[in-house]
Design a protein that fits this description.
By secondary structure, this protein is mainly beta. 0% of the residues lie in helices and 40% in strands. It is built from no helices and 13 strands. The strands form four sheets. A four-stranded antiparallel sheet has the order 8-9-10-11, with no helix packed on it. A hairpin with a 2-residue loop joins β5 and β6. It is globular. The N terminus is likely disordered.
Length: 143
Amino acid sequence: MTRRTHAFLAPRVTFPVHCNATVCVAPSVGVEWRGRLGMAEPEVVSAGSAEALAEGGMVVVELGGVEVLVTRSAGAVYALDNECSHRGCNLSDGDVSGHEIACPCHGAVFDLRNGAVLDGPAPTAQHIYPVRVANGQIEVSAD
């Protein structure tokens, strides 16, 4: 076996790095990084005012090219794919009751908390998204 070396590969250099949630600093070499190292920040979209979203109310936002349904039920805010996993109907045309949403086309019922299929013909769970209320605004983020 022949060992090969490449001139364009730099030797590995190690040095102490100190990090907190948003900044890493390597004081010995004068380098500073801001943001999450090695990961892009997840896309975040606003779904409007938390106060404006009534119990059982729904709003649809676009996140990364996907329609996401945001709803308030049982006092909590949830976000999941708007397109039903069964035949692609819009869940935003369906009914919310408790922690459940029913598809208007073929009656599939999903759990808003985890996207699980509770009833009906849907073959897979709905994808859910992290959602939070910050400064009175509903924010939905990609995973």
